[in-house]
Specification:
Blueprint: H1 2-29, E1 52-58, E2 64-69, E3 75-79, E4 84-88, E5 101-105, E6 112-116, E7 119-124, E8 127-132, E9 142-147, E10 159-163, E11 169-173, E12 189-193, E13 206-210, E14 218-220, E15 227-231, E16 244-249, E17 253-254, E18 260-261, E19 265-266, E20 284-286, E21 292-297, E22 311-315, E23 328-332, E24 334-335, E25 338-339, E26 344-347, E27 361-366, E28 372-376, E29 381-387
Parallel strand pairs: 13-17
Antiparallel strand pairs: 1-29, 2-3, 3-4, 4-5, 6-7, 7-8, 8-9, 10-11, 11-12, 12-13, 14-15, 15-16, 16-20, 18-19, 21-22, 22-23, 23-26, 24-25, 27-28, 28-29
Length: 389
């Protein structure tokens, strides 16, 4: 009996030593940083270009993710930590939300929402829920689950939805792993469904595009109708590989994962000769491990003319890099619907010089007032960036 206890104790000690060795190896070899968790959530000292200013539009939220402007001109937010969608009205126009009004609660980790044909469609972990407010009092009367088969979540639990100009609904679901062969073809892919208007469940399921490890942000270009997506590249390939990407996604396109990354980088585990030969190429490449999430084209009128039509992207920030990166909002100058210049910083300050962070930008949205709104799921804030008169 004593011998068995001695062996058990030895195995426990060996297990602890092995776990510690693995952790040290990962930290030293795979460039891990803890900027996302170090530091208390606080109002960041956000820096923007000359001629712009920043203010906190709303606070006290829990893990706010994506935003959308409703038909009433009010900003709505997926308050994920509270399992709800909230409205943030600013009736007096002072740049500060008057209240946090609950549109709907009891949702499972809502990530984004789109108002389409008299209803809100919300992406939750399992799929999509439709919310209807028939009497227009700002509180939904019914919630209809249109699909709930996107389980288990795996490594990437968020879902993002968008509507194509033809009325089809798109759902993006990230991979279940860093890099692997997926069993469910809807993972690391974007799936399309027939128009859900008037339907009680989604029909016509088709894989719209594949090979996208984690296409978190979806945006339909307001002029061309093209689908633009941010894609988070794989981890554990060093500080600067592979680049983060934005794709203009074509129906039926294959964008390479898990064998090819960012259009040119062959995967060391799943790659093969010619793995990148026929994959879709990115429209924009960015610093590896920046974690680009929400993106939006500037459709307002209050920013200077040179910003009109430009693309803004929220960087959530790195963990798999020896020197932290991201934690900011960047701008991609555009001309005639295509990138016309390099990626440039637009709003910085969430990442501190000591390697900690005050917050983590998630999404960007153009408000009805022409300001650019930024959600921060670490701090629970919504920031408002506006052009000074």
């Amino acid at each position: 009996m004593r011998r068995n206890k001695w062996l058990t104790g030895l195995l426990v000690v060996l297990g602890i030593c092995v776990a510690a060795a693995v952790a040290i190896y990962l930290y030293a070899r795979q460039q891990i940083n803890l900027a996302g968790v170090l530091g208390d959530a606080a109002v960041a000292n956000v820096t923007v270009p000359e001629g712009f200013a920043v203010q906190v539009f709303a606070d006290g939220l829990s893990g706010p993710r994506f935003m959308a402007v409703g038909p009433d001109g009010i900003l709505y937010v997926a308050d994920r930590g509270n399992d709800r969608i909230v409205a943030l009205p600013d009736a007096n126009g002072d740049g500060r939300a008057d209240e946090v009004r609950v549109l709907a609660d009891g949702l499972n980790n809502p990530h984004n929402m789109v108002f389409h044909k008299e209803a809100w469609y919300v992406a939750v972990t399992e799929g999509v829920v439709r919310l209807t407010d028939k009497d227009g009092d700002g509180v939904v009367e019914s919630q209809t689950t249109l699909i709930d088969t996107y389980t288990p979540p795996g490594q990437h639990s968020s879902r993002t939805i968008a509507f194509l100009p033809d009325g089809r609904l798109l759902i993006s679901a990230g991979s279940t792993c860093n890099v692997c062969e997926e069993e469910d073809p809807r993972r690391a892919a974007i799936t399309s469904y027939d128009s859900p208007v008037g339907q009680e469940e989604l029909t016509g399921e088709q894989i719209y595009a594949s090979g996208l490890r984690n296409a978190v942000g979806l945006a339909v270009h307001p002029d061309t109708g093209q689908l633009w997506v941010t894609n988070n590249g794989r981890d554990l390939m060093g500080d600067d590989t592979p680049p983060e990407t934005v794709y203009i996604v074509e129906e039926g396109g294959d964008y390479g994962w898990p064998s090819c990354h960012s259009g040119t980088v062959v995967d060391p585990e799943f790659g093969f000769e010619g793995a990148c030969a026929a994959v879709g190429q990115p429209a924009v490449t960015m610093q590896a491990h920046s974690a680009p999430l929400g993106l939006a084209f500037y459709t307002g009128s209050t920013f200077p003319a040179e910003y009109h039509g430009d693309l803004f992207i929220a960087f959530h920030g790195s963990w798999n890099r020896s020197v932290p990166t991201g934690y900011k909002v960047v701008r991609v100058p555009m001309a005639n619907g295509t990138p016309a210049g390099p990626v440039e910083d637009f709003a910085t300050g969430w990442l501190n010089s000591d390697g900690s962070s005050d917050g983590r930008p998630v999404d960007v949205a153009v408000g009805s007032d022409g300001a650019l709104y930024v959600s921060d799921d670490k701090g629970g804030f919504i920031y408002r960036i506006y052009a000074q008169p």
